[in-house]
Specification:
This protein is an alpha+beta fold. Helices cover 27% and strands 15% of the residues. The protein has helices at residues 35-45, 141-148, 159-167, 173-179, 227-236, 240-250, 305-310, 329-345, 420-428, 431-445, 451-464, 466-476, 482-486; strands at 58-67, 86-95, 110-118, 121-128, 194-195, 200-203, 209-218, 256-265, 291-300, 323-324. Strands 1, 2, 3, 4, 5, 6, 7, 8, 9 and 10 form a ten-stranded antiparallel beta sheet that branches. A hairpin with a 2-residue loop joins strand 3 and strand 4. It holds the Pfam family Catalase.
Amino acid sequence: MADTKKLTTSWGAPVGDNQNSITAGNPGPTLIQDVHLIEKLAHFNRERVPERVVHAKGAGAHGYFEVTNDMSKYTKAKVFNGVGKRTPVFVRFSTVAGELGSADTVRDPRGFAVKFYTEEGNYDIVGNNTPIFFIRDAIKFPDFIHTQKRDPRTHLKNPTAMWDFWSLSPESLHQVTYLFGDRGIPLTYRHMNGYGSHTFKWVNEKGEAVWVKYHFKTNQGVKNMDPELAVKIAGENPDYHTEDLYNAIEKGDYPSWTLYVQIMPLEDAKTYRFNPFDVTKVWSHKDYPLIEVGRMVLNRNPENYFAEVEQATFSPGNLVPGVEPSPDKMLQARLFAYADAHRYRVGVNHNLLPINRPRVEVNNYQRDGFMRFDNNGGGSVNYEPNSFGGPTEVSEHKTTPFPVSGMAESVPYDDDDHYTQAGDLYRLMSEEEKARLVKNIVESLKQVTKEEIKLRQIRHFYKADPDYGRRVAEGLGLQVPDDVITNA
């Protein structure tokens, strides 16, 4: 018989009794000198870190990424170079709007975040299961998320607020059409695609740069869930997607995705018919075909959900040499906001946690802060420049220069075409898909308490495609406003 492990306190002292508190006689009262009891209760009160403001509910898994097509022509990022090269990854899938205990099968975008543990540091691709987003300037993000969360008065979800915001933000139409279509509720996390969504810059060893977009295509095939079944499952098994991912990996049915990229020459961005940095738009695959990069496989479940999933932190600012940001306004803000959220939620030293720690040596002059649990740099020099052999910059990895010009002012995007791509998406759908899209939208808009909001949204649908607008209007028992028909 194996030796039984001794139960200890957090400071390593053996525990003599873990079933009974120390009391003054029988029945008590309990004595405050029972430090083991006090420690257990105090730690229990602090077991939860604040949940994520968005993407609170999620599941994660470990795996690897293997290069199948060398990308050194376009980027010096080693993670994408060398056919057969494998890099460990950790992936987190999530819903967006719900709380930590919410249902998996709601109509909502899904987060799709990948952490590559590369030999040049961690590289995070932090995207969704949609190639686009609702807004394109982060100054609107807090307002948008407030409409997706609970009403401050009723503490209930508020469809009126949701549609009010969307109807006043026509750039959301493309994503709204995507969300209320079949892909708004994936069958499982394994049966959905993932996208980097933003445009990034790739730079090769010669310093030559291109614009790039990421597409993770599921090898299980895209499969979606019927809304009525989704509602039923939400009540019976709110953790359905979490359970499915865990069980599939546990039985050896490892899900995989093939990573593709679209490549755009830098000069094309100046003349392309859509702003290539606008995250509410896509690039045509005819103009910029998908190029295969590699295959991602998830083959190991976490041993501890809190340590590996809840404490996992991702940021689009976690870049490696050969990958740089673009002028995308949403991306620029996310470079700050994500890391800042982690400093608040998990702590300033969140990157030291095992799930987030790079697999390479880290050398910098950052010291101290809450929960610094390594040797804190020991006795090494903590400033730079210095005369004591401390780490110094590597000049060949400076970010490539790019020109900027113009007045410093609050300016909108100069592209107000919010309708072409949303209409194209609608026209790509089969008659059955269109019918389901309209049904889903109508059922949601029926909950809106103000007719003005419904009519304003109908105008947007009509501008995208007259049939789209007419069918939503008919479903709501309304007429398409005359002014939008006249000006169409």
